[in-house]
Design brief:
The complex is a heterodimer. Chain A is an all-alpha fold. Chain A has helices at about 1-5, 15-145, 150-170. Chain A has three helices and no strands. The chains are: A mainly alpha, B mainly alpha. Chain A: This is ATP synthase subunit b.
Chain lengths: ~170, ~240
């Protein structure tokens, strides 16, 4: 065995070095053609695909985030709008109510006033009618009682004075 | 140990049949392994493809640790084949030794210094070739006088020590493993049944350890090859 270590000894087979050189190169070429080539190609393709997929996922996520934000904003806006609408409706209802009530008040007041004045007028009319009637009646009565002792005009003024006193007393 | 080998003379060169047959068997085994694992290459890898990709990633990692700037991509294939070939060669002699008529025909090819020197020659040739390709022949020569001129003899000497340490480290480890295995075998046969039983666990332990050593040495050889190549490819 020691002879193998001494170059130039008769036992040394330098052809082995040539043999391993050739066989190693052939092996490398075969491995490259049958396994290394396809597998590394596939590995590269996969890493490329993964990078692409990651990029795509990032893109999609930002897009989704944007959309969600937009939707949220829209929702918030619509809520505020709804509140505004309700408030407006409440306000207008309030003013309408107020105006209806005040209208009713004023109408009722007018009605009352009219009724009051009507009543006063009717009383006045009745009073003056009664005054005349009473004067004529009492004149007739008096003329019938004392017939021509007094003329009609004197009698009338006398009676009017009485009645005036009467009304003054009454108003007192 | 005291193995006998058959020699063939061809074109004025001597060929050791055992070495060449073992190299051939290792190469065929590596090819069958890689070929079987790469049959269905798909985007979603199956079990076999996963194993192969794991091995490729492993050797790519070795190249990348020696050449971190990504310039080593062209050596990925070389590192892969080198690692697998040395690994299979180291294990071959542990499981499969063929002796016919007193002549050894198949053993670990890496337990012979000429084979490991052949492998080291390939590595160093690659390193010199790519250095000349990168710097030109003049630049390649001037790299021997860098970083300072008086280091020229040391740099020249280093080429030889690199070659010798790279090849003899692998040879020594595997050869020693086989020698010890053969010694344990002789012990087993020496005193009949008693020593046979005693030597059995010893042989098993040493075989397991040799598997480990074989893997480590394949890794070391590939790593150092890449380191030598990367050293040739940078200017100090």
């Amino acid at each position: 065995m020691a002879g193998l270590l001494v170059l130039g000894a008769n036992q040394v087979a330098l052809g082995d070095m040539l043999f391993i050189l050739v066989s190693f190169i052939v092996l490398a070429l075969l491995v490259k053609h049958f396994a290394w080539g396809p597998v590394t190609k596939m590995m590269d393709a996969r890493s490329e695909k993964i990078t692409g997929d990651l990029d795509y996922a990032d893109q999609e996520r930002t897009r989704a985030e944007k959309l969600a934000k937009e939707r949220e904003d829209a929702l918030k806006n619509s809520r505020a709008e709804a509140v505004e609408i309700v408030n407006k409706a409440k306000e207008s209802g309030e003013t309408q109510k107020k105006s209806i009530v005040s209208d009713a008040h004023s109408e009722a007041e007018e009605l009352r006033q009219r009724a009051k004045s009507d009543a006063a007028k009717a009383r006045e009319d009745a009073m003056s009618g009664a005054q005349n009637d009473i004067a004529n009646l009492s004149l007739e009565i008096a003329s019938k009682v004392i017939s021509k002792e007094l003329n009609a005009d004197d009698q009338k003024s006398l009676i009017d004075s009485y009645i005036k006193e009467l009304t003054v007393n009454e108003t007192k | 140990m005291d193995d006998k080998y058959k020699f063939i003379e061809f074109l004025g060169l001597r060929f050791n049949v055992a070495n060449d047959l073992s190299v051939l068997v290792s190469a065929v085994l590596v090819f069958i392994l890689v070929f079987a694992l790469s049959r269905k290459v798909t985007m979603r890898p199956g079990k076999a493809q996963n194993v192969l990709e794991w091995m490729i990633d492993f050797t790519n990692g070795i190249v990348k640790s020696a050449m971190p700037d990504g310039s080593g991509k062209q050596f990925n294939l070389y590192a892969f084949v080198l690692f697998l070939f040395i690994f299979v060669s180291n294990q071959l002699g542990l499981f499969f030794q063929l002796k016919v008529g007193g002549f050894t025909y198949v053993k670990s090819p890496t337990s012979n210094p000429l084979i490991t020197m052949g492998l080291a020659t390939i590595s160093l040739l690659i390193s010199h070739y790519y250095a000349v390709k990168k710097f030109g022949f003049g630049g390649y020569l001037s790299n021997y006088a860098r970083p300072v001129k008086f280091l020229l003899p040391i740099n020249l000497l280093e080429e030889f020590t690199n070659f010798l340490t790279l090849s003899l480290r692998l040879y020594g480890n595997i050869f020693a493993g086989e020698v010890l295995l053969a010694l344990i075998g002789t012990v087993a046969k020496s005193l009949g049944a008693v020593t046979f039983v005693a030597a059995m666990p010893l042989a098993m332990v040493w075989q397991g350890f040799s598997v480990f050593i074989g893997a480590i040495q394949a890794y070391v050889f590939t790593t150092l090859s890449m380191v030598y190549i990367s050293r040739k490819l940078e200017q100090e």
